[in-house]
Design a protein that fits this description.
Length: about 160
């Protein structure tokens, strides 16, 4: 649904494997409810989205398994790196996510985390898991496109 402008955003982390493992059907932009040391770690770029996924629990959307390293200059009040983080979405978007999750084989994965106007945002995608033959077909079309571009470049 929403796509962030690249002019006023700063990329924190990207889940490049998500587009390889899932067929992306729909995207959402959500804010994250973070504590202070998490924001500081995000500014340092100490975030990993590899195993992260989103879900709906008790009528609220959460981001699970998103690893934000503890802040390097934090004290004993530092945050837990794998705690569930609340996603800030409108009620209609949460309902859409809940419906998408109840369908067969659908999951909600974060594609990237970024700062937008000083706030941490997540780009979420509803995706369906790809089979291995789908992945091979994607690689074959990508290779064919690359060869075609090279052939056109040589002719010029």
């Amino acid at each position: 649904m929403a796509r962030a402008d690249s002019s006023d955003t700063k990329l924190i982390a990207q889940n490049r494997r998500a587009r390889y493992d899932y067929l992306i059907e729909d995207t959402f932009e959500a804010g994250l409810q973070l504590v202070g040391t998490e924001v500081k770690s995000c500014r340092e770029g100490k975030v990993s989205l590899t195993d992260a996924y989103a879900g709906v629990r008790d009528g609220a959307a959460f981001l699970f398994q998103c690893h934000i390293n503890p802040y390097s200059h934090g004290n004993r009040e530092n945050h837990d790196p794998l705690r569930p983080r609340k996603l800030l979405l409108h009620r209609a978007e949460i309902d859409k996510l809940h419906i998408a999750l109840t369908r067969d084989g659908r999951t909600v994965v974060p594609l990237r985390l970024y700062f937008k106007h000083g706030l941490v945002k997540a780009e979420l995608a509803v995706g369906r898991g790809k089979k291995s033959y789908d992945k091979r077909a994607d690689i074959a079309t990508r290779d064919a496109d690359r060869r075609m571009r090279q052939a056109v470049g040589r002719r010029r």
